[in-house]
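Subject: Protein record for review, amino acid sequence with backbone structure tokens
Why sent: The fold of this protein is of interest and is recorded here as tokens.
Enclosed: The protein record, placed directly beneath this head.
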Amino acid sequence: MPAATGGIETEFGVYVHIPFCSKRCGYCAFATSVGKLDLAPDYVDACIADITRAKKDGSLPRPTTVFVGGGTPSLLPEGFLERLLGAIDPAPGAEVTVEANPESATQDFFSEAKRSGVTRISLGAQSLAQHVLFDLDRTHTPGAVAGAVRAIGEVGFPTFNLDLIYGSVAESDADLAATLEEVLYFEPSPPHVSAYALTVEAGTPLSRDPTRHPDDDVLARRYEMVDDRLRAAGLDWYEISNWARPGHECRHNLACWRGAEYLGFGCAAHSHFAGERFANVSSPERYIERVRTGRSPVAWTERLEPDARALELLELSLRTRNGVRSAALDEGDPLLADLVSFGEGRAVLTRKGRLLANEVAIRLRVGAADGPPQGAQPLAKRA
């Protein structure tokens, strides 16, 4: 079982999905449930029972990283988060992250999170322009973001990150520039910012309205704006969509990009464990019923062949500042000349390469895969 030392090579993660939302955003393709918060008591009980079963059968070591995402975990009634994290029992020194939305992230919620061992808050700001928030179907105001950041500082978390989404048709370059300035002048100033291009996902209201689809050239320009401003403020990129001050990178996400194992609990939660990838049933009702009746909540499982897994590891590593081994790409390929920087045995995406990462990824050579994380050992398959 992985050693719980906190090193990236030996991380073992737990993800818990909280599906409840007050409103579904038009771009969101995640498994979320609106108007079902009354299920929260039974749902959290089911998560705890599922976690307890995994611990009893030996398939869940004490995790070194925990991520409670959604959905909107900050909608959970008081006491539920504390019970959930108590059941997980993270290893000493673990990173414990909880997502929160500004409209529901109260001082009481943050206080409970800190008391429960949470070390990192991920706050979904998306924008600080009200008309952009409206176009993204968000229900909070820019003032709510500022208030949530103040509360994070007052409660005293070791770190936090702010999530942004750029590329809405309602957004101008000036809107994004103003958002970045305001974000960086928050007190406390975010030591980590994630900035995601607005993506059209199949089956979402956004996908059905072409007039709201983002323009690729605009997205590229906005990405460069984000990169310029955040790096000037001392936040360096460490993954295509993530910037942080040294020491504030998200260990949970880094571990996933490095291919570490993790188990997911809750509806629609995915896992990568013992050479397999699997996911739970997608609705909270079915998840509750499966666990309550003693059945596995897993809906599907796949085992990756060695070459497929090796390619996946390369694709994930390519997205990071660490890049891949130089041998994984042809240094003499003229198409890579300004997309990849070669040096010291590594191949790392340039900024232009980050914008065209998929073009670079299709040129990866599987035989040069970095392999599984150093020090990782196989674990027993989860029942």
Remarks:
- The radius of gyration is 21 Å.
- The longest strand covers residues 159-166.
- The chain is about 30% helix and 20% strand.
